[in-house]
Amino acid sequence: MTQDSTLDSGLRASLAKHAKRTAFASSQHTLTYAELDKAVEDAVGWLAERSVTPGDRVLLQMDKGIAFLLLHLANMRMGSVTVPIHPLSTAQEVAYAIRDCSPLLLVCGLQEDRAQPSSLPEHNGTAVAFVSPSERPVGKAPRQSDPPQPGDLACLLYTSGTTGPPKGARLLHRQLAANIAILAKSWGWTPEDRLLHVLPLFHVHGLFVAASVALHCGATLELATRFEPSETWKALLSGRISLFMGVPTMYHRLLSAAPATAPRPTAVRLFTSGSAPLRPETLRAFEALTGQVILERYGMTEVGMAASNPLHGTRKPGSVGPALPGVGLRIAPPPTGREPDSEDIGEVQISGASIFDGYWNRPEQTEQSFTKDGWLRSGDLGFLDSDGYLHLVGREKELIISGGLNVYPREVETALDEHPYVAESAVCGVPDEDFGEAVVAGVVLHAKSQPGSVPDLEELLAWARVRLAPYKLPKRIAFLTELPRNAMGKVQKDRLSSLPELRGSGS
Ligand code: MCA
Ligand code: AMP
Fold first, then answer.
1. Ligand 2 centroid from CA 507, angstroms
2. Which residues contact 217 (CB under 8 A, 6 or more apart)?
3. How many other C-beta atoms lie within 10 A of the C-beta of residue 190?
4. 158 in ligand 2 pocket by Cβ < 6 Å?
5. Rounded distance, CA 157 to CA 179, Å?
């Protein structure tokens, strides 16, 4: 598949060549490519019965399962647009996405105990449909449209980019197809591969880097509904899995839950890690335990994958590898105007066919995210070594990456500041052994807060829980008389993050 393809033509190519091979396997379903094709057609019917037409946004607030995958593939076939969000998004977060991109349909596919669509007060004309995450959506309405074109919008993915509120990154079929083609080749995918998929489906990593590449290569996608370390070990040691993709937290947890006798997942030909920095200690410990060197790669929502350690060749611990073929990587020249020296640290900038089409309805922020000569500004800081390998050393953007999920301090601060007794707050990340970084907050209460009614940690967390998905909640809160500030009045997050009460055992 190439950038002249759409995501559906990639899937159809697999169908043409591998109709009888297993495309999808889970604890409840096994589908060949021919059966998957029929299931996608049924899901297209289900969407059409709900009046979805090409270009319509379809918001998916769904637990992981076959229904999520089929509705996404149906969107790709129909020309409607997948807008995936975290299944535990709060009513406020769902309402924000609805206001921002006016979807025609919100599909709520949550497990039965939480089957409410975040009890939205107002849907702004967006219809709500329910579906069980483990069932196939089936409908009969005929599709009325021509297939989508490579230049059509495939997916809107919410991210804050380098700054500001969450924005929908516009990902076109041809951009996603370009990245899928690069990954299929660079990581040596074949139809013989079987991927153990433990990632969430609502992000680039799980949806495109993992699931789409597997299906576009005629390989088998084995879907686990969640990451569970002992089940993962069982699958990895079963001999049927050839590929595994995780975030660093998953590798950390696999190490902690390793079977007593040295596990040798010899059938697995490739372990990859990304979305957050993989500690060299984790890479080395995993190699010592299993004999396998994890391949670390780097990407972002707006790009897909940009750099990767090689399939064959040296995988350097602490580096995310050289640029992938067809991707341009450069370090921004220092502000003085002099030419960068080798190993100068600067902002990582990226170019290539997979770079996104801008943010939904936000031309200004789109413009700001590119340099004058058209390179994407990543907001990440790094350097290229003499072998052309990228080393990431920090971030210019205010972003906390917790367990591979992005948390934007401003969003958490806004939620805390809305509490009537909170005068101001500042949120930052601190090192955390399990999550890599943990979200923590410093809070200053109003002097007028009544004694006896002053909120405590539990109350503030309960307040925030209504506003923020659980992974964004501060793991610790320090009540301060004032926030640490510099002479200009700017909050010093480095001083905040070094407060002993905010640092946990992993710090
Ligand atoms: C769950 N919790 C978290 C996180 N996940 N808190 C902080 N950060 C998190 N990531 C909360 C839960 O709500 C719960 O809170 C408590 O922590 C314990 O939950 P636990 O059972 O440990 O969580 P889990 O369900 O096992 O999830 C951990 C996880 C998950 C498996 C690491 O977060 C995950 O799947 N992360 C992968 C994210 C990912 O795919 N990112 C890719 C983004 P309470 O006790 O209060 O209920 S795409 C991307 O970044 C780019 C493109 C790229 O390069 O890939
Ligand atoms: P997102 O906006 O969710 O796509 O997250 C993209 C960000 O994740 C990047 O800009 C990096 O900051 C971070 N990231 C992804 N992969 C890695 C990695 N291997 N090492 C360090 N950071 C990473």
1. 21
2. 14, 184, 189, 190, 191, 193
3. 11
4. no
5. 16
State the ligand closest to the CA atom of 256: 1
Q: What is the mean pLDDT of residues 218-228?
A: 98
pLDDT at 59: 97
Nearest atom in ligand 2 to the alpha carbon of residue 300 is: 4
Cβ of residue 321 lying under 6 Å from some atom of ligand 1: no
Instruction: Judge whether 377 and 371 are in contact, CB under 8 Å.
Output: yes
Q: Which of 244, 336, 326 lies closest to 290 in space, CA to CA? A: 244
Query: 424 in the Ramachandran plot: left (φ > 0), alpha (ψ -120 to 50) or beta?
Result: beta
Q: Answer whether residue 115 shows pLDDT above 70.
A: no
Residue 225 CB less than 6 A away from ligand 1? no
Count Cβ atoms below 10 Å from residue 246 Cβ, excluding itself.
25
Alpha-carbon span 399 to 395, nearest angstrom: 8
Delimit the domains of the chain by residue range: 7-19+32-136+150-171, 399-502
Q: How far is the C-alpha of 281 from the C-alpha of 317, rounded, in Å?
A: 9
- Mind giving me the DSSP string for 218-260? T-EEEE-SS--HHHHHHHHTSS---EEEE-HHHHHHHHHT--S
| Domain 399-502 listed as CATH 3.30.300.30 | yes
In this prediction the pTM is 0.95
Quick one: which ligand is closest to 307's CA? 2
50-59, 109-118, 139-148, 225-234 — which is least confidently predicted? 109-118
Ligand 1 atom with the smallest distance to the CA of 403 is 10
**Nearest residue by C-alpha to atom 16 in ligand 1:** 471
The predicted-structure confidence for 277-286, as pLDDT tens digits, reads as follows 999 999 999 9
pLDDT of 334 above 70: no
**Degrees to nearest 5, angle at CA 251 with 249 and 252:** 60
Question: CATH number of 7-19+32-136+150-171: 3.40.50.980, 3.40.50.300, 3.40.50.150, 3.40.470.10?
Answer: 3.40.50.980
Task: Count other C-beta atoms under 10 Å from residue 20's C-beta.
Answer: 8
Cα 301 to ligand 2 centroid, rounded to whole Å:
8
Q: Is 471 in the pocket of ligand 1 (CB under 6 A)?
A: yes
**Ligand sitting nearest the alpha carbon of 439:** 1
Q: Which of 348, 345, 366 is nearest to 357 (CA)?
A: 366
380 pocket-lining for ligand 2 (C-beta < 6 Å): yes
Strand pairing category for 376-384 and 346-352: antiparallel
Question: Quick one: how far is CA 421 from the chain centroid?
Answer: 34
The atom of ligand 1 lying closest to the CA of 253 is 32
CA angle 83, 408, 446 (to 5 degrees): 130
User: Looking at residue 473, what is its pLDDT?
Assistant: 97
Distance between Cα 435 and ligand 2 center (Å) = 14
Which residue's CA is minimally distant from atom 4 of ligand 1? 471
